[in-house]
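Sequence only, no structure available. Ideas?
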Amino acid sequence: MSAHCIVRAMAKNFVRMSLLLALCTPLLAPAQRTFADSPAVKLKVRTKREEAARLLARFDRLRDQYMQLHRRTWVGSSWVGVVGSVALADGFPLAALQLGMRTRLMGELGSVYFSHQDEGSPDILFAAIAAAREAVRADPKDAEAYRLLGEAYYRLAYRTSERAARRHFALLDRMRRIQMAAAWSRAIQLRPDTVQAHAQLARLYQEMGYMDLLRKHFRRILECTKAAGPAKEEDDEHFDQRMKELKTNLSQLDKEVATRLNRFEVNSAGRPVREKAFLALRLGLPGKALDVLLDSDASVFGVEGARMELELLLMTGRTKEVGEWLSPDVGEALGPTHSHVLLFHRAAAVGDYDEADKFLRKLFVQLSQPPANERKVGSPRSHLAFLVGRMILDGDRQSESPAEMVLVPLARIQCWKTMPALLDALREQSGLLVLRGLLAMERGRDQEAAKQFRAALDLWRSEAAASRGSGLDFNGRILAQHYLRLLEKTKEKAPAEKK
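Reply:
I predicted one. Tokens follow.
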């Protein structure tokens, strides 16, 4: 072969190799770094995470100071009442009786008083929530930021005046539980050995009576503790004792859950899927109830079963699945109220505040609809005013025919039946405004929060108005008053600090 042919063959091989390398380059190239891996984003995430941790530590440091102030206030005011009642008593026997009664009441009412007090400044916790939310938005895979987010919600729900408000405010109570569950579940999903998140979820599920979920997380606590070994400055003897206690508690949980599962198997035989799920939930086995529903088709367990399935998914932190499954068709089957509540809770749990506010507004509009068999007059307040006016006019009208003598009293009875539903709608609407205010505070929008709290309190008006019957109480009223006072104090303090 001539030298010319050899050169041409080498050139062709070179071209082929170049084309092959060009085609394979995307496969051979190193993986591209994601936006979250960039140094600027990492710095922001670390800064916000550290800010959230610092704020939570600050809240905890202030606890003793706040509790001492609350104790002094309670003891001082209580003893003033005791001394006053004893001084006004007629004779020693009555004075001794008053002293005994007042002293006993101090102990009984003390727990009620302290449950309405903050153990630190709620402003610090809202700032911690905002910082943790910024961290997880910048890096959705930061397990520690999610754990801190759950801790902030926990302190807000259990160590501020929300603790008392949640007892009578179901939407707020469920929102906080779902927010905590979502944050800690995500932290565990990203880093399964996060013992603190397992412990907090175990505490949450224990309070709710969710025994199988409690056992699940307690077992993970034991496994993670064993794998981690003794803590810093902990000797082997103390570690062995701690492990022994964990194993004992887990053994007791295993027996309790096994007993409930046996009871479930015996009583659920031959029952429909929906009844099986409800039975499991009544026995404190929500994990089993969810498994029963997930293993079946939605057409088998109907609307009530679908509602339970979605609620349990939210309570176990599976917010993504709720968003995927709650399609318009499913929402229509559930009904607007239930679907809007579920979507609101999901949005609040993942920090999609615009979406949460949208569904709160939809619920507000839904409550403006008139009761059954009533024509729409306007808002519940306008409708109520219309009914009162009609009753007054009908009361002054003279019946001119036998038919009117029957119809006018019947119309008045119908008005009385409609009024309670309208009053309940007004109360629920005010509660929704309080929730909108709380979510605005999570976003750091204090002016918007104050606006929503004032709108909610417009139903209450004042203590004097409520005592006369012209104001209406509602769930969340005390919380709205408390946060509005805090926001006004913060607003007054800001110009002073600038000076």
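The chain has 23 helices and no strands.
Hope that gets you unstuck.
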